[in-house]
Design a protein that fits this description.
Radius of gyration: 23 Å
Number of helices: 16
Strand order of the largest sheet: 2-1-6
Number of strands: 6
Structural class: mainly alpha
Oligomer: single chain
Number of domains: 2
Amino acid sequence: MSPKVRRGLVHVLRVAVTAAAVVFVVRTIRWNDYWIVEGPAPARPTYHELPEILSVRGGAEGGSLVTWADGRETAAVKVVRRQGFLSLFAQTSKPRFFAMMAATLIPVYFMARRWWLLLKGHGFEVPLRQIFFVTYAGAFFNNFLPGSVGGDLTKAILASSGEARKAAVAGTVILDRIIGLSVMILLGAVSLTPELGFYWSPAGDRRLVYLIYGLLGAMVLGYAVYFSRPFRALVGLLPFKRVVAELDGVFRSAGEKKALVAKASVLSLLAQATGILVIFGLAHAMGIPGLSLVKFFIFEPIIFIVTALPISVGGWGVQEYVYQRLFGDFGGMDPNHAIALSVLYKLTLILASIPGGILFAMGAARRRRAAGDSL
């Protein structure tokens, strides 16, 4: 097969994958209001458009009795009504919403610059423009892959294409993620400090304090263990020595290249702070009363960490639950407002990231060789 034909097939495949992903992502958006019906365990919750259910009333043992459009009546453990995007959008300030949607690109830029800095620090010369497009494409693929793993995997595959040191490229992606998570934990711990008096009072719920400072302690312990002599000796005994050596060389930079990691941490802080301000701006656009910016800086790092885990596709379900528990139980926000904010923020990310998928289809994230480039 000639190189020209191969390039053409790759381009067709890239367009096809992106088109399928865009269709999938758009179909995940629930445009109209809907019901969530939870049946007896182990049945999973089901989603239904409003016309499918005529009424919901109290049932036996605190459950609900659902009357369907076809006349059937079934018992359910719990039935809740949720707003779709159109309802949320109708009650939201349009100028603020579009401003916040555009502002979601600011954290993407800081994250791209952070990864670009780590790549340069490990000997990979690559244009910042390309890294931005790769990061933007990764944000798009996060919408239909578990947690943030899909986006990281996308970044690693795109960046390592044609590169001899593939493990080292993957290592920079992992280190990039570790720095981001570490700064999230520190940000949450620092933001919680002024609130310690409240959460540590007899009436306060101390679980939030234990969670955040527990994560901080685990982070410090993990760093100490990785650079301890016993662990360093264990690394030398592992198989696949070339791959291990490349990965370990990148991870060791956390202790050996402190200036590089410090710069990456500052960019991570900027990315997370601007991301939190975007969510706070969306809450203002929705008209949610009694907002506290400090609580957003306490809760959002935890939410970022939880939704980064490969628990659900695109974080759906998990994010709404965590928003309800943190902003509702600990932040004093109406639980319905907390869930609505979570849904609107997720839909905003989806709409803002679709151009990243289109740019990927057009080949903007494709590696371009230039004289002297090593990536």
